[in-house]
Each structure stands twice: as C-alpha cells, then as structure tokens.
Amino acid sequence: MRQIVVISGKGGTGKTSVTAALAAVARESAATAGTREGVTQPPALVLADCDVDASDLHLLLAPVVRERHDFHSGVLARIDAALCTGCGTCTAACRYGALNAPPHVAREMCEGCAACAHVCPEGAVALDERHCGEWYVSDTRFGPMVHAALGIGEENSGKLVSTVRNRAREIAESLGAGTVLIDGSPGVGCPVIASLAGADMALLVTEPTVSALHDLERVHALTRHFGVRAAVLLNKADIHTGMARQMEAYCAGHGLPLLGSLPHSPTFMAAQFAGLSVPEFAPHAEGVLFSEVWNNLQAMTTTTTET
User: Fold this and answer.
1) pLDDT tens digit string along 208-222?
2) What is the value of pTM for the model shown?
C-alpha cells in the first residue's frame, strides 16, 4: 500500500483539481482491470483531504458522511463564577489578554498556557479540553475519503492532519486498497510536514511564475529533508513559456521527474462548476493527460516500494 501526497509550495496552482482528477482516472483504471479479469476489485484508493485549514476536495467529490468525530487539541481556560472573587490575579498573569473581564474568557485569545490556573488563589480556574473541529469518514464515487474541518481561528492543524492520514491508512489496509491519495496543504508549514512525513511519493504541482518557482524550490527542499521521492506536474504551462522553460530546467538540474505539463484551460473551471473532476468532464481531452500522469506515478511508486 503506497501513500502519494499532492502538495504545492503555494496556493492556487490547482492542487485539489489534480487530486480529484487522479482519483477519477485511478477508479477508471481499476474498473477496467476488474472487467478484464472478471473479478471484483478492491477500491483503487482511499482519499485523505489533509488541507484541513481550508478543505475543498469535498466540493468536487460530494462525500456522504458516515462517521463524524470531534477533534480536541490543547486546553481552554474556564472560570467558575461561583468561586471567582474578581481579585484580578489571573488577569495580571495572562500575557495574551484573554482575561480582561473575568470570569469571562475570550476563547479566541486563550492559548491554554495554564498561567491563570496556576496563580488563582481560589482555585476557580479549570482547564477544559479544547474542541477545535471535526473529522469525517465519508463515501465518494471514487472510494472512501477521510477529511476534516478545523474551527475558525483554531490551531494544531498538524495534529489533525496526522489524525486524518492515520485513519485513511487504516481504512486502506482493511479494504486492501493499493493507494492512499493525499491532498496536502499549500506552503511548507506544519500541516504540510504532517501530510508529507512517511509518504512514498510527493507530486509537486506548480505553475510557470516567479513566485511558484521560488516556492517549488522550498517544497522540494522539504521533500529532500524527509527523504520522500518527488516529481513535478506543471499546470497552466502555457501562460508564460519562458518561465515554463525555467521550471523544466530546474527539474532537469535537480533530478526531479517532470510527469506532465497541463494547459491553462477553461475546462478546469467548467468541471468545477459542474461538480466533476476534469477527466469526468473531458475524458478525451485533458482526461487523457491525467491518465498518463497517474500511470507514471504508479510506475514510480512501485519502483520506490520495491527498492
């Protein structure tokens, strides 16, 4: 069972559209193999949407939620009004301005540092487990998907990413699915690291712009740090042919396989409006390109797992 993570150094490169497209061609490939062999195949893959701060894979996959779980991380101060004398000791100790009017605690300001509980002479402060969001196990037309929604302004998204990834791997193992396909977060921060660590392959989705080249260098350095094999998919390749050549030169100079170049096409937006992946919307156009990318990814990850 292989884990493939789709990431990008910046937002807006088309990472989620690429993830949905690969899921579509993987399903089609598995269905074709099952028909040819005359046997029922296990799911081709299990999906994990690890962009928990701004998840949007569900917009294309229309998941039907069958499990819903609360996600807790850290603590939140709570003051018992019956015990609080209003002495202001906790207010003076709080460096984050969360206790300007005790016994009220400003949730958005509380960092859970527990200083207020430590100094309160009346023992009026309790530290409750902090509810930060939810995570789900859903059914989609491409197979099971694990995804999440982090609350507004909440942190610890790296921990939530790990929760989503671990559950997706467990489901894949139980069903005999060959792949966990992970839609990672943009950038190089904690959620990306949690998405990437331990993966078998990273597909770096980029575009031919100056900022995208800079961010490709950063995210490539991250994959090297974690020892994850990487390949590149150049999206919107025709918006700046000069930068596209620079992208190709960077890949060639750093041993990064370039698995494909996609045009800047209105098909992507039209597919989104229709709630479909690109191969579903245009199977004989851009869909063919994604089939080639998926076949190349499979070949690379097979080689990686065997070695």
Assistant:
1) 999 999 999 999 999
2) 0.91
